[in-house]
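Reading a protein record of the kind used here takes little practice once its layout is understood. An example of such a record is reproduced below.
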Amino acid sequence: MNEEQLIQRIQYQSQLQVTELQEVLNKLNGLSTLLNKAMKNGVVVNKQAYNEFADKYNDLVRSVDGDLQRAKIKQAKNMDLLKKD
């Protein structure tokens, strides 16, 4: 693999990781909206179970968001390193 192919591969993998994490975060946000509507419309009746789920859900969102931010930083660092060459 030559240098140009390696650069393209690094750029592609960085972008793919960011894109995949962003898609997961978007889906989680959509689920949150759906659950909030269900709660407001009285579909969810066990509030304790809902709150326990919401806590775990929020932890998951924070984790994915943290991974996304780290992936964006890594992508930016890769771009900076590649530009210096």
User: Anything to note?
Assistant: The first helix runs from residue 3 to 40. Helices lie at 3-40, 47-84.
